[in-house]
Design a protein that fits this description.
mainly beta; 9-stranded antiparallel β-sheet; 14% helix; globular
Length: 159
């Protein structure tokens, strides 16, 4: 597992968000409310779906499955001049990311993340940075299909 290390520019996003925890993981509710309405977003830059996760600075140091975090279902846009009703804007800050390619269904994702944080990160020369974590679901993404592919973006900074 060797990620690409990428520096990205700031990105504008439009979508919907909820506050959830791993103990009360209502991700289906979020995407179920977003997907039927994504066609209303007129300034999309591409067809990729963006899942953004914003953790507090102490989320993992004092980890509990009941810790809450913000989760977004969004798309990247060229501008935020026209935002559909009941949707919001956010900005993905510029910065350094370790980008991993995940192949498989949702059943293997927890093990994949565990490998990133317990095997790769301790030896990689990076620390996790306090910016949003991102999942990019492009043309090869197939919801919960064993042949699905998506990118996992972990915000990093050099040690």
């Amino acid at each position: 597992m060797k990620p690409a290390i990428k520096t990205i520019k700031e990105k504008k996003l439009v979508g919907k968000r909820i506050t959830i925890s791993y103990a009360d993981y209502k991700i289906g509710e979020l995407w179920g409310s977003f997907m039927p309405r994504k066609k209303e977003i007129t300034s999309k830059l591409n067809n990729e779906l963006v899942a953004l996760t914003i953790y507090s600075s102490t989320h993992f140091t004092n980890f509990s499955p009941t810790n809450t975090f913000e989760k977004w279902a969004a798309v990247e846009v060229s501008n935020v001049d026209q935002v559909p009703p009941d949707m919001e804007t956010t900005t993905l800050p510029a910065g350094l990311y370790a980008v991993f390619l995940y192949k498989g269904s949702v059943t293997g994702i927890a093990e994949f993340y565990q490998h990133i944080f317990t095997k790769w990160l301790p030896t990689a020369g990076f620390d996790v940075d306090q910016r949003p974590h991102v999942e990019i679901m492009g043309e090869k993404y197939k919801n919960n299909d064993p042949s699905s592919e998506e990118e996992i973006w972990i915000p990093v900074k050099e040690k």
